[in-house]
Write a structure and sequence with these properties.
Length: about 325
């Protein structure tokens, strides 16, 4: 943010207003109330588990600063490296990566194979991959992995004999799909997490499914050979109901509203990380956890947490 207090207040107010309007659009049943005992307006929706954002103007950069509680050596958007390992190590130094499995998986999968070459591959920013889509900035991939990691670790601990299932919606370049694959690798190298699993990548662009497959084939083809990773063309709004329920769902593009079919495909205890908001407008990254299962969609089955402000390309309808 700029140093001018007037600009800060204008931005703050505009962001709050847009966030409220956007949320009313995605969940019309939400009600909003203000309390003198809180520093910011609190959301009181029909869903009693909805959690407001940590700050009305919090960005990925602000989140790193608040997590460090002191001097920050590196920040989001600045975790550039000359190699994959150097870039990932900087993400860990910045406090963006906190779990060793995230760091190990992202180190094993070379972003240069997925970002169209080594030029810019280790820069902490999005890169275009065609068809109006991008490979997300490394710090956003790290954020997504970190939000899913505790759920995956708990599922592996609670059910050591049960395979993990992960759905990557909008697989795009295939990078995060491959990272998920390394976490649950069924091949001879074994998984990073305690149990093996399967990762399903889908994209509404058949050309990007082919692009993902070609990228994974470069140095991560063993994920196909072992049956750990599979890719297919599909509408991300619909998910893959026949392959679920999923312990984790990652959505790599912004949905205008919360996709109910995807929410229903979560296993109880499962988590979805998804950006929600209008194309070109204010968007937020949300964590949706399923806490119980009903025969029909019920908002009360989910805990919804607003993580931080983001800007993503829209989730495409084929």
């Amino acid at each position: 943010l700029r140093s001018s207090s007037s600009i800060h207040m204008t931005t703050h107010s505009a962001y709050k207003a847009a966030t409220i309007l956007s949320f009313l659009q995605v969940f019309p049943t939400l009600l909003i109330s203000a309390s003198a005992s809180t520093q910011a307006a609190s959301f009181v929706p029909h869903n009693p588990y909805y959690e407001p954002p940590p700050s009305p103007v919090q960005s990925s950069i602000d989140r790193v600063q608040s997590n460090k509680r002191g001097e920050v050596k590196m920040r989001a958007w600045t975790c550039h490296g000359r190699t994959q390992k150097e870039m990932v190590d900087k993400l860990a130094s910045a406090g963006i990566i906190k779990h060793k499995p995230t760091q190990e998986a992202m180190t094993k999968v070379d972003r240069a194979n997925y970002a169209g070459g080594r030029s810019g591959a280790y820069v902490d920013s999005p890169q275009p991959i065609g068809y109006g889509q991008t490979i997300s900035a490394p710090h956003m991939h790290a954020h997504a992995c970190e939000e899913l990691m505790p759920t995956l670790q708990k599922a592996a601990q609670d059910h050591p004999d049960k395979e993990l299932k992960i759905l990557d919606v909008g697989c795009g370049s295939g990078y995060l799909t491959a990272c998920f694959g390394r976490l649950v690798d069924r091949g001879p190298n074994g998984p990073i997490l305690p149990v093996k699993g399967r990762v399903y990548g889908i994209d509404a662009w058949s050309e990007l499914v082919d692009f993902s497959r070609a990228n994974i084939m470069k140095e991560d083809s063993d994920l196909f050979d072992s049956g750990t990773v599979s890719l297919q063309y599909g509408d991300g709004w619909d998910g893959l109901p026949d392959a679920g329920p999923f312990n984790a769902i990652h959505v790599g593009a912004a949905a205008a509203t919360f996709p109910k079919p995807l929410m229903q495909q979560l296993a109880v205890g499962g988590v979805m990380v998804i950006p929600v908001g209008p194309d070109g407008g204010y968007q937020s990254l949300y964590k949706v956890q399923k806490i119980k299962d009903s025969p029909k969609f019920d908002e009360d089955d989910y805990v919804i947490k607003n993580l931080l402000g983001v800007r993503y390309v829209p989730l495409f309808h084929p």
